[in-house]
Amino acid sequence: MPTLMISISGIRGIVGDGLEPDLLVKYTSAYADFVKEGIVVIGNDGRISGEMVNSIVVGTLLAKGIDVIDLGICPTPTVQFNVKNLNAAGGIAISASHNPNEWNALKLLNSSGQFMTPDENIELNKIVASAKNKFKSWDKLGKHNVFREGLVFHKNEAMKLKCIDSEKIKKRKFKVLVDCVNGAGVHVIPQMLRELGCNVVELNCERSGIFPRLPEPIPENLQLTMKAVVNSKADLGIVVDPDVDRLVLITEKGEPFGEENTIVQAVKFILSKQKGDVVVNLSTTRAVDDIANSFGCKVFRSPVGEANVVQKMKETNAIIGGEGSGGVIFPELHYGRDALVGILITLQHLVDFGAPISELKKSLPQYFITKKKIDLGSAKPDEVIGKIISDYAYMPINTDDGLRIDFEDHWVHFRKSNTEPIIRCICEAVSQEKAAAYIEKYFNEVKAKFI
After folding, report:
1. Which residues participate in catalysis according to the annotation?
2. What total of structural domains would you count in the chain?
3. Which of 276, 340, 361, 417 is the most buried (most CB within 10 A)?
4. Which burial class, exposed, middle or buried, applies to 400 when counting CB atoms under 10 A from its CB (0-12, 13-18, 19+)?
5. What are 370-415's pLDDT values in tens digits?
């Protein structure tokens, strides 16, 4: 993997090997020119390099005459929420999300608290290319304001959502094991759960900023966490990534609930309270469609990426959306993936469902996803995907983001990587065996015909 990645959501790299102070100044200065004036909200996910990056970002913004509201260590969705509610000109979440300790990033937000749109990103990149680092004189510098209450404000407003009955949750007295991987979630999730009457068992909830394991919340990284759920006799396990935009659940049996099922059960719960349209990305499980159909609601699909999901949600006026990686977007609070909202919906859903989380999982449509990378060698990804489109033109296809083909008993999604010479192939079917067989079929087909 490259040590520096530049994308629609900002810049991400290894500190000291790609993500350097001069680069941070360059991009922060360009971002300041993009917002022009006003307030920018800043927060970081608690990793060791966060303080260093925060100092450079804040100092650069002040030097450009931009006022800063500094939330300190907090989730990325907390930055998003506060940009919206403080009427700020923008925000920067300092977080490399699920990347390991050595990584950090600037996630750039617009004045709505959302990741910058493709058009906004084009405008920013033009400013970066012009490299006009002009700074203000001593009497026109920005002001630095520390606002640690921003995290409490976010938590409290999430708990006030109309669909959440805190008193009913308190009566259930859940026992919950929480794994925050020593990231920003430590500063809010255990406290929120205790306010909801939960008996909280903390795992990896130190405020050290050093991740004790690979931070991406996927089953292979959560073996000890799953065992701890069983050993502590918890009703469920809650796992978040360092910046708390992804939520992964573990059943009382110590088994993965399934990160795809995080959004599925959230959609089921919300649609049971209010009918409306749903948006998920093209790589998200078909179970969302099954649930929406059962309520007479529509599902719209967007290209992969939070900014794309949000854009489609706004276009369709969707009441809930998200991504199969454990991201729940509920615009009643704000347009952004938010594990705090996902946790609240999950607990309320379990209260209403009246049975263990393993039974809730069984009640959802059952599908299985398999993923594989196709190494392209010297072949060009756009040409390869173009040839696949020609071969399957007779099928219902979607080409908004690579190629998704829907069959009666499965679907497959081909997407090119923006950072590697590969195509990502994602396939879902009604059994693990079928999903594995189909993805092997497509892998061999592409290799034989095009590479």
Report:
1. 97
2. 3
3. 340
4. middle
5. 999 988 888 888 888 998 999 898 999 999 999 999 999 999 999 9
